[in-house]
Amino acid sequence: MMLFTLLAIILGLVVLAALWAMGVYNGLVTARNAFRNAFAQIDVQLQRRFDLIPNLVETAKGYLTHERETLEAVIAARSAAQSGLAAAKANPGDPQAMAQLAAAQGQLNAGLGRLLAVAEAYPDLKANQNMMQLSEELSSTENKVAFARQAYNDSVMAYNNRREVFPSSLVANTFGFAAAALLDIPAEKAEQVREAPKVQF
Questions:
Q1: What residues contact residue 17 under an 8 Å CB cut-off, 6+ apart?
Q2: What gap in Å lies between CA 27 and CA 134, rounded to an integer?
């Protein structure tokens, strides 16, 4: 009888441990899916931004005939930023992919900033209705990108906290839940990236 009671207690403890591990595992999956979904929102806003840039460049092209280098730099930066986004989209949270995305976005921000600064010197371009509308949409999209990036970083922080605390870390390590990277701004380009391009048309 005593042996049966001991076996029942051990079996009960094993079942409780299994239920706990299942709960932790499911929580980690939910947190990982949350930051991946948050990254999908960044993807949507960046794609919208990428779609606006060719129209902006095309509108400016007729006015900025002597600024071809600036226009080409923006198009090249857009292409690099799209590649960075594709790499990050393939593996959201991967430290290398997120660093590549942040660097590419920094270069694009710098290129757009130069384009908009040059455009300020052309009153006809400043007054162009199409340019004003595109600039307003770009500014609005920049704000949405910032909000989406903050939501992503919050989700990554929640996931990383969940996977690192003991005893959840035992389950996370056992099942290969890797740390996710924030979408951080590289230190050497912080001033470029933190400031969205000034749009004043």
A1: none
A2: 42
Alpha-carbon distance 36 to 180, whole Å? 10
Q: What is the pTM of this model?
A: 0.79
Kindly report the length of the chain. 201
Cα angle, residue 19 at apex, residues 176 and 173 outer, rounded to 5°: 15
First to last CA, the chain: 86
Which residue intervals of the chain are DSSP H helices?
2-61, 68-90, 95-119, 123-127, 129-164, 168-174, 190-194
Which of 143, 129, 174 is CA-nearest to residue 28? 174
**Half-sphere exposure of residue 72: CA atoms within 13 angstroms, side-chain side:** 5
Per-residue pLDDT of the chain (201 residues; tens, 9 = 90+): 788 888 889 999 999 999 999 999 999 999 999 999 999 999 999 999 999 999 888 888 877 777 788 888 899 999 999 999 999 999 999 999 999 999 999 899 888 888 888 888 887 877 788 888 888 898 899 889 889 999 999 999 999 999 999 989 999 999 999 999 999 754 434 344 444 445 444
